[in-house]
Design brief:
single chain; 105 residues; alpha+beta; 3-stranded antiparallel sheet; 1 helix; globular
Length: 105
Amino acid sequence: TGYAIAVGTYSGRVLVFEPILEASASTTGSGTDEAEAITSESVVGYRIYWSCHLPYPVHGISAADVDGDGMAELLVTTRRSLHIFQVNVDDAVEAAKKRIVDLCK
């Protein structure tokens, strides 16, 4: 769980919301005396992660890897144009590092 949500408006705004996750731990038995801790995350809300304003109403939003780098770009169509937004690689690396550290806890 926990994917971003992209929304386009008639006024030309593009808003990307990221999930706010709350971690909860539960313990289950594995058939032995030792118990395994399982961590699950649940979405408790969303916050604006990124936004921009385009000159025309947004008609469609999609995500696809259009340049073949392995990371999806955000594709936004308006009445007169197609906008392709790429992920900032430095931000993606930091987010991946944080996620790995969180998973190792």
